[in-house]
Amino acid sequence: MSFETPLPPYNAADPHATFLNSSCFDLLLIEMVPMAHRLASQQEAEKKQAVDDEQKEMAFRRLDSMGYRVGQGLVERFSRDRPRLIDTLDMIKFLCKDLWTLVFRKQIDNLKTNHRGVYVLTDNTFRPLSRMSMSTPAEAISSAQTFLWFPCGVIRGALASMGINATVQAETSELPAATFQIKTLTARG
Questions:
Q1: Which of 16, 87, 157, 173 has its CA 20 to 30 A from that of 140?
Q2: What is the C-alpha radius of gyration for the chain, rounded to an integer number of angstroms?
Q3: How many CA atoms lie within 13 A of 120 on its CB side?
Q4: What CA–CA distance (Å, rounded) separates 115 from 68?
Q5: Once rounded to an integer, what is the mean pLDDT over residues 50-57?
Q6: How many Cα atoms are found within 13 Å in the side-chain-facing hemisphere of 46?
Q7: Are 141 and 161 in contact (CB under 8 A)?
Q8: What is the DSSP secondary structure assignment for residue 148, as one 8-state letter?
């Protein structure tokens, strides 16, 4: 899957064939967060508990797990014709260059590591946050946090599919920039 226009003849077996409209993908990402909040509030209403933290946690789990499955599927599909990556840094580079380009149409702007299992990925113009606006910058930044949960899941799922167990945290201090911190745990083998 790529975002360039496919050339005829269309071949469904071609892994680089385009069958996804980027506008549809943007709209999907925009709608997933409110949907997760609606589902969480409906479940909370059924339980007659109106605790915001629990509702926020349920939305986080839903978005993160959706992203996890997407990340796993993307890596399985687009790394099958490549040689197996063995080094953790090479896997992170694959994520920053190839996978990020596939999903968000650009590479990660900056990758930093302490060479002890912590990686910081910075995207200075993160597409899901680029069109976000609110009445105050602080309100926009707090609202933007929930839009980072799905990409965190994508990163975790992609790394898990490559054999790396990791935790991923995201934050934004200025829109549309986003920073993702990856802490690798024990690698499966």
A1: 157
A2: 17
A3: 9
A4: 24
A5: 71
A6: 6
A7: no
A8: G
Strands 178-187 and 164-171, how do they pair? antiparallel
Q: List the one residue out of 158, 178, 182 whose CA is nearest residue 168.
A: 182
Mean pLDDT of 103-123: 94
Within 13 Å of residue 39, how many CA atoms lie on the same side as its CB? 13
Higher pLDDT, residue 8 or 118: 118
Residues 6+ apart with CB under 8 A from 89: 113
User: Looking at residue 187, what is its pLDDT?
Assistant: 47
Contacts of 100 (CB under 8 A, 6+ apart): 106, 107, 108, 123
CA angle 5, 8, 9 (to 5 degrees): 135
Predicted TM-score (pTM) of this structure: 0.76
Contact call for residues 164 and 183 (beta carbons, < 8 A): no
The residue type found at 130 is S
Give the pLDDT of residue 20: 59
- Residue 35: the pLDDT is 85
Distances (CA, A) of 46 to 42, 43, 55, 187: 6, 5, 12, 40
